[in-house]
Design goal:
single chain, about 425 residues, eight-stranded mixed sheet, alpha/beta, 2 domains, Rossmann fold, about 45% helix, six-stranded parallel sheet
Length: about 425
């Protein structure tokens, strides 16, 4: 059974999406997997060796020069030696996408959609790539960009392959997000497109039970759960390092979507507690440099530090060096609506660390709801409860070991990687039999 992975960005283990793809597909023979993506950056993983990439600069060139055909087929060898990519292309692309992460302009998004509409990505090179690979299954995370859905439909029609759609973010919600008229129009158009892809798909996965429940009702289709996994066979031992005076709280993840404000709440609570006697330190790791306002809110002398980016290979060590690992969601109304059904893949990393998990966020958020129902974390669902949980830790230090155990048990129960991969591959085999 051959599986084509379709994503917008390159399959790179150093980012969240690439790490998740490796998590799902590391059990598949590399001869039976290929990747189609739409960025200039090269892939970096040890699972897939067959690729097709096409990106915006090539599309612009194809519009200017009608004899130019965008897109390229390439392979990586067993040592993951990557293709040569012009540094300038990659750097310019990263600067552009970094700008739009901070400034989401609807008109710019529509401009990008027009570029993909008129750029000649539908060409003989793409057709030859998918014909030669001849996938039985197309696996794609659900996209925020409309052009990615059109690529999915195109490949589906060309190959007649079964489509498996993974809903990792909520792109169906249109109410309660505010914004300009153009933003609201864009969300409605995106929601209709996502619904169309979901209905065309032969199998839909959701990332959280809350999302599964709502999407099943909304789309009138069966939805399955697909969690990220880890190896929970050997539990790390947690024993408080008494040589370290401060209780170390570590956050590794995005500070976007208002999470920086929640981190600021925790920092303020720590600073207040530390006034009498130093008790806690908060270390914040994130791959993106926060804005001046965000950094000023999160980083308080005597309470918290911003540590910058941590390499993917070092994440587990950073978490293992903590006494408490942290998960946060925003309390802001708009961000709550945006992230309500999301389930950060970093939660699995937290559970796998074998440390006590502290979760702070709106109680209706899917991730917070999950941790509460599984009793897998100390949870604060408003700002006042942050102080209560910190005092609870001071008064009952044994609770760190108790919740380290609970977090591990939750991970072993729901996120054991061999069970997740086995269930996924059995679902795909069943689709293959129907095919």
């Amino acid at each position: 059974m051959k599986i084509l992975i379709l994503t917008r960005s390159a399959w790179d283990n150093t980012n969240s999406l690439g790490n998740t793809m490796t998590n799902f597909w590391s059990g598949v023979d590399s001869q039976n997997i290929a990747h189609l993506y739409c960025r200039a950056a090269p892939p970096y993983n040890n699972v897939c060796h067959q690729y097709y990439s096409v990106f915006e600069k090539e599309l612009i060139r194809s519009i200017i020069n009608r004899h130019y055909t965008p897109g390229k087929v390439f392979k990586l060898d067993a040592n993951n030696n990557s293709i040569e990519v012009e540094n300038k292309d990659q750097e310019n692309e990263e600067r552009l996408y970094s700008f739009f992460r901070k400034n989401s302009f609807v008109l710019a998004q529509w401009g990008q959609e027009l570029l993909w509409k008129f750029g000649r990505w539908q060409n003989y090179q793409l057709d030859q790539f998918i014909a030669e690979f001849s996938p039985d299954i197309i696996f794609a995370p659900c996209f925020s960009s409309l052009y990615m859905h059109k690529i999915l439909w195109y490949v589906q029609e060309k190959t007649n392959a079964k489509v498996v759609l993974f809903h990792a973010d909520d792109y169906l919600t249109v109410k309660g997000l505010g914004g300009s008229l153009l933003s609201r129009m864009n969300r409605r158009l995106r929601a209709r497109t996502v619904a169309q892809s979901a209905k065309r798909a032969d199998l839909n996965y959701c990332i959280s039970p809350k999302q599964q429940e709502e999407y099943s009702l909304e789309l009138q289709k069966e939805m399955k759960i697909l969690f990220k996994g880890a190896d929970f066979s050997v539990q790390p031992v947690y024993k408080r390092d008494n040589t370290r005076e401060l209780i170390r709280i570590v956050y590794v993840g995005s500070t976007l979507y208002g999470r920086w404000k929640t981190l600021g709440m925790l920092a303020r609570a720590i600073k207040k507690i530390n006034t009498d006697k130093p008790r806690f330190e908060l270390l914040i790791y994130s791959q993106y440099q926060p804005s001046t306002e965000a950094e000023r809110t999160m980083v308080l002398k005597g309470a918290s530090c911003f540590m910058g980016k941590v390499p993917a290979t070092q994440v587990s060590k950073v978490l293992n060096d903590a006494d408490i690992v942290l998960h946060v969601e925003s309390f802001d109304e708009r961000e709550r609506a945006l992230t309500r059904l999301s389930f950060s893949t970093k939660i699995v990393d937290c559970l796998h660390s074998g440390r006590c998990v502290l979760a702070i966020g709106w109680k209706e958020a899917a991730s917070i709801d999950y941790l509460i129902k599984n009793d897998a974390a100390l949870v604060a669902t408003d700002e006042n409860e942050i102080m209560i949980q910190l005092q609870r830790i001071i008064n009952s230090p044994y609770i760190l070991e108790e919740y380290a155990q609970k977090a591990w048990k939750c991970g072993k129960r729901n996120h054991q990687i061999n069970k997740i991969q086995k269930g996924l591959y059995e679902d795909l085999a069943e689709l293959g039999r129907v095919h």
